[in-house]
Specification:
Elements (H helix, E strand, L loop, with lengths): L6 H8 L6 E2 L5 H12 L10 E6 L2 H10 L4 H5 L2 E8 L3 H13 L6 H17 L7 H16 L9 H25 L3 E5 L4 H8 L6 E12 L13 H4 L4
The protein binds flavin mononucleotide.
């Protein structure tokens, strides 16, 4: 079979982590399109457990770039996006979805009630409780159940919950980077930042929020030369069964 190429694949294969940007303005429409692409990513139980901070004013950008350890992509970007895993958003999200379902004719009362029940169970399951007490009890229960039943383990501790939310947040980040590429601008994902200071700067709560990455966004400096892109060979990363 020949290699198929289309716009989406081109954006995926052309995307690079750009290290130096040149100053360009990102229009409001482009900003909205990029952010919309991010939130269209799939997420666990459609919970969309994240919040994005789009930093574009000069003063805020300078402060955030400094907390990204003064890295060149951060210092030269037209905008910085801070992607935050937000485990405090779950109740509001399920209530929002419930309201949305109630406002539409496609959903029967039975469907709405079923969603309401599932959301309630989810909330109980996903509640680590004070000092992780519920998490420990739930872990014991699930461990015993798993001895005789095939089942998945839900995120139980706060750490599990952040790991769980980070997966969905990262998928949204990738969508954002591919969308930016498709629109002719470039990005650099960064985990080189001072998480404690950046969280404080954004007014985040350690209980509910964890910064997953910061994405520098802008137009690649025309004169910059990208190093060749290396990837492990397919057979080193894939097992076909
Ligand atoms: C989670 C994550 C964190 C990263 N952190 C940084 C960073 O702090 N600074 C940086 O310059 N690049 C960072 N990168 C970019 C990688 O170095 C880059 O993606 C990798 O070298 C492959 O290059 P390519 O994306 O151009 O193919 C990060 C990438 C990822 C996915």
């Amino acid at each position: 079979m020949g290699v198929i190429m289309n716009g989406t694949l081109e954006a995926i294969f052309h995307r690079r982590a750009v290290k130096v940007f040149e100053p360009v303005e990102i229009s409001e429409e482009m900003r909205e399109q990029i952010l919309n692409a991010a939130r269209h990513a799939p997420s666990s139980f459609n919970t969309q457990p994240y919040r994005f901070y789009w930093v574009e004013t000069a003063k805020e950008k300078t402060a955030v770039a400094r907390l990204c350890l003064g890295q060149k992509p951060a210092e030269t970007a037209s905008a910085l996006l801070v992607a935050v895993a937000d485990i405090g958003s779950l109740t509001a999200t399920s209530q929002g979805q419930l309201e949305w379902m109630r406002s539409r004719s496609e959903f029967s009362e039975a469907k709405i009630r079923a969603y309401e029940r599932t959301a309630k169970i989810g909330r109980i399951l996903f509640m680590p409780g004070p000092f992780g007490i519920f998490a420990a009890i739930k872990w014991g229960m699930f461990w015993l159940l798993n001895l005789w039943k095939v089942m998945g383990m839900p995120p139980l501790s706060r750490q599990d919950l952040f790991k769980w939310a980070t997966k969905s947040t990262s998928l949204a980040c990738e969508n954002l980077m591919i969308a930016a590429e498709a629109l002719g601008i470039n990005t650099c994902p960064m985990e080189g930042f001072d998480g404690r200071r950046l969280s404080k700067y954004l007014g985040l709560s350690a209980r509910y929020h964890e910064i997953v990455m910061v994405i520098a966004i802008g137009k690649r400096l025309h004169s910059s030369v990208e190093p060749p892109q290396w990837r492990r060979p397919l057979e080193a990363t894939v097992t076909i069964l």
